[in-house]
């Protein structure tokens, strides 16, 4: 039902040009396949995600994070499935986490201060059966349930630049010192959470 694909540009300068987005600074891009049709998701300033069908020949749908300030950068995107829904998650530099239904464009969840600082990376996993969001803050990773309730933290003690959720409850964490492989069973680095982030 849902998978990712990467396209290579055929332009002479090696760049993929997206109509209507030439004057924006891209921070992150995701390219899911939904019901056999590719989508292009791109984000940068102003706390919204632009969604195009492929090829991007029409104006995009704007998925708004409803950020009060309105000019905060989106630093991370992830696509996957939560409770049977194809979703996209976005995190911005103020720690705001938002999740939309990719078919209806409905904003499903919006959590202010999901992290006390920028959300540097996101992933969608299926470790516990119904889907989870995994987000990265300053030196730690937070696992959220499919209903965006915080489940536990994993202390990384290094800045995180990327996340890749694998099967068998494994997670690849990219840091400035290299890659770290951790598992959901790594209880030695878990901290149970019952609310929003206040300790980081």
Describe this structure as you would to a colleague.
The protein has 200 residues and is an all-beta fold. The protein has one domain: 7 Propeller (Methylamine Dehydrogenase, Chain H). It has no helices and 18 strands. The protein is globular and about 45 Å long. It starts with a strand and ends in an 8-residue tail after the last strand.
Q: How many distinct beta strands?
A: 18
**What is the percentage of strand-forming residues?**
over 45%
Number of discrete helical segments:
0
* Domains, number: 1
Name of the top-level CATH class: Mainly Beta
Helical proportion, percent range: under 10%
Low-confidence stretches: 1-11, 187-200
CATH superfamily: YVTN repeat-like/Quinoprotein amine dehydrogenase
Could you list some keywords that capture this structure?
single chain; 200 residues; mainly beta; Methylamine Dehydrogenase, Chain H; five-stranded antiparallel beta sheet; 0% helix
Quick structural summary:
The protein is mainly beta.
Task: Chart the SSEs and their pairings.
Layout (H helix, E strand, L loop, with lengths): L1 E3 L23 E3 L1 E3 L2 E7 L4 E6 L7 E4 L9 E9 L2 E8 L4 E5 L5 E5 L9 E5 L6 E5 L3 E5 L5 E6 L4 E7 L3 E6 L2 E6 L6 E3 L8
Antiparallel strand pairs: 1-3, 2-4, 3-4, 4-5, 5-6, 7-8, 8-9, 9-10, 11-12, 12-13, 13-14, 14-18, 15-16, 16-17
